[in-house]
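Quick one:
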Amino acid sequence: MRWNNNLIALFADKPLLMLQSIKRAFRIDPKNVELHSCIVRFAVKLVTLKKQTEPATESPVLTVIEQEMEPILRGRSADQINKEFLAENSNSLPALFEAARMMYLLDESKQEEAVKLTTSLEPHITDVDLQDLLSHRIAQNFNGRSTVAPLRLITDRPNDQ
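Output:
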């Protein structure tokens, strides 16, 4: 089952709709790799919302979101969620892709480590699909803007553009 991985971008200014979509998806398939990236990005968004809210005037929306996300987040940070996901799914190539993308999203200085995760095709890794590799997963960089930097790391060749 594939989820709309642009969920967070679609509902960027509608946190209650993001919450509703994540909760529904989590009930259907809590281990889904694309849902994982939505949860991580939403956790990052939650931190941003907390920083924007004055402590004395706690937003009721933020309170609802925190209460409803507790069963999913279980008090973990986005980084902790991603590390646990990576540890639990280290044999699945699609999971490695999503975990690497989130690793880079959370800390851009980890780009090389993220690329290395997705390009070391060890024998124990499952769900390797050549079409998936060639179509968009490796060709897409971890921040979704450009393919130049990761491909340069992968191929060790200068940009041909």
